[in-house]
Amino acid sequence: MNKIEHIGIAVKDLEAAGKTYETLLNTECYKTEKVESEGVETAFYQVGESKIELLGATRDDSPIAKFLEKKGEGIHHIAFGVEDIKAEMKRLKAEGYVLLNEKPKKGADNKLVAFLHPKSSNGVLVELCQEIKEEPDTLPEGDAVWDS
Length: 148
Ligand SMILES: CC[C@H](C(=O)O)C(=O)SCCNC(=O)CCNC(=O)[C@H](O)C(C)(C)COP(=O)(O)OP(=O)(O)OC[C@H]1O[C@@H](n2cnc3c(N)ncnc32)[C@H](O)[C@@H]1OP(=O)(O)O
Ligand SMILES: [Co+2]
What we know:
single chain; alpha+beta; 8-stranded mixed β-sheet; 3 helices; 21% helix; globular; binds ligand LZKTLF4L; binds cobalt (II) ion; Methylmalonyl-CoA epimerase; VOC_core
């Protein structure tokens, strides 16, 4: 793990929460992005080497919609930056951590991502993020997974 890549916060109203965090952080949103495979719309705010990722649900069956229904607004996950997501997934699986996806999947902000079950990390949903180095427009759209 090379840094806290972002902290994900589940919000009911992305636009309203965006105004709250723009004022709080005194910085503008640098990117909004929908991730259809997750049923989320994200808004990113740079804070030093880390980011705040606001997450709104775009579908009722989204993990964010379920979280909001069950727990209300609040911190949803912590994402760690990794150099080699496949190696990290293999290492953590061998150590007994429960991976929620067997292969890396395309996340927001030009990343490959994977999630660990909260029960593996003291009730905290952990996300692993690896920067995608290739040119974004050469990557398949949607919920592609990487076999390479
Ligand atoms: C990828 C795009 C973007 C990015 O950064 O690039 C994102 O970050 S998208 C973020 C949204 N996507 C995900 O969260 C994918 C991974 N999440 C899941 O697979 C599920 O949400 C899961 C398995 C964490 C929970 O599933 P579900 O809600 O259907 O199950 P339960 O309600 O039964 O929950 C099981 C157990 O976990 C607790 N829980 C649920 N969500 C969280 C959470 N965010 N943090 C901590 N704990 C969580 C829940 O309370 C249950 O605990 P229990 O003690 O059994 O009540
Ligand atoms: Co995230």
